[in-house]
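Me: I'm a chemist; would you kindly supply a protein sequence with its structure tokens?

Assistant:
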Amino acid sequence: MPSNGTTTTVAPSSGVTITVCVPVYNVERYLCECLDSIFSQNYADFDVVLVDDGSTDSSGAICDEYAARYPQQALVFHKDNEGLLLARRDGFALAAGDYVMCVDSDDALVPGALALVAATAAKTRADVVRFGFTREESEAVPVESSIPFKLYSAEEKPSILSALCRSTSGSENPMWFKAIRRSCVGVDVDFSKFKGLTFAEDFLQTLTVYDRAQTFCFINASLYYYRPGSGITRAYDPHFYCDVCRCLDEGEGYARRWEREYGCNDLMVGLAACRLDSGAQYAEWMASQGDTVGLDDLLASRDFARCLTTSGAGKLLRFDRRLVLWALRWRAYPIIASIAMARAAKARR
């Protein structure tokens, strides 16, 4: 990732304070780069909560070093390992700023990010300030958002909820490209039943945020460097589908209420598409392992079968996912295995 260099000009205060929460677990290779990108920001009104989630390498000691170096801004919380979700929640509980941001400890902030977020929050008073990001390996190319950049009023909230629920790729889920008014983060919400959740924790937390937020601002600026393949991005894990389904079950409770409150009529369809998309990925993995019993069980599961018959859900999926689902319906498992093999071969190129 590019170095921030030395910041010589301090941006004027916008009157908005920001707490940056950094969950940390065994990232000694990247942690200094991440923390340097935060503490070298040219905005003064911020503090940092470092949550050491039971690291077994030198990450905890590095956190302590930065806390000693920046005693007025840094707070370290050492805890037993409980996973990213609960580490973030502990960080939010310790946050004192008007707004809360997350930075994953293998990623980094772009120079000037906090100043722009604070200025935008002060100007718009939006409950959520959403910004763009770039991938470290292709940093000059920003990743496009599925939502147009603008200020969204409370009356336009249904379009934000629709984008969240209909995003089968999860592109609107990440907590790390949002600055959230602290009152909307949901520090009072108990996430302990999701302890051990490995996937989809961003979607789960965004449900709470978007439920409480009324106004949203999407700014056309890439303020975050995301590092693919360093621990956040993984090869397919069979626990993925189970975790996603747990979060989608929670999401359906929100979606039903949102459809009643805001007059949306496409949220449940969108979540059905998300379940089908995740199920298609799971089916590919099982087919690649020759697990025909697992494929039969997936096809017979009540929630998955319900989503297969949800009108309009399939239209939200990519063609390759629809092809997998077609083969699954007809129990043409060798076709699914062939698709999985072709995808794996392409990934190795």
In short: The chain has two domains: 18-226, 239-348. Residues 239-348 form one domain. Strands lie at 18-24, 46-53, 74-79, 99-102, 108-109, 128-135, 151-152, 178-181, 216-226. The two ends are 24 Å apart (CA to CA).
